[in-house]
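QA checklist item 7 of 12: single-chain prediction sanity check.
[x] sequence parsed
[x] length recorded as 162
[x] structure emitted
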Amino acid sequence: FLDRDGVINRKADEGDYVKNWDEFVFLPGVKESIVSLTKAGYLIFIITNQAGIYRKMMSLNDLETINNNMINELNKKGAKIIKIYFCPHGWDEGCDCRKPNPGMLINAADEFNLDLRKCILIGDDVRDIQAGEAVGCKSYYIDKKKTNLPEIVANILSYEKK
């Protein structure tokens, strides 16, 4: 499970959102890392909070366009994203899907018969990690000053070979 903003693409400034494809910028090495995971046999899901919809800063159609373009770019390199789960709700709506709640993870597990204790979650926010830990996922935190997705993927894949 990969968070999107801050893991796959450059995160918008605090209080803002990636609202259209022109604002979406892949982080260095991310495409190649996702290709490596695909080739290693991992099923890749994206789980992302998208409160910009709730705040009316973007539409569902905007999000769909961004996600479709992202998937197309990744597919061109040989990566395969199984499904994107997103939460369009605001912080105070009390939904089960907004991270740190694990609803998106549980939905993916139900839909694809996954044992979440055997899954890995990679995120750049404490809420991502809390969602993963709530269902027993091994969780990796991206601290932009210390680590990034390519480093974490390299560690996962090298550990797997041992």
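[x] summary fact logged: The mean pLDDT is 95.
[ ] second reviewer sign-off
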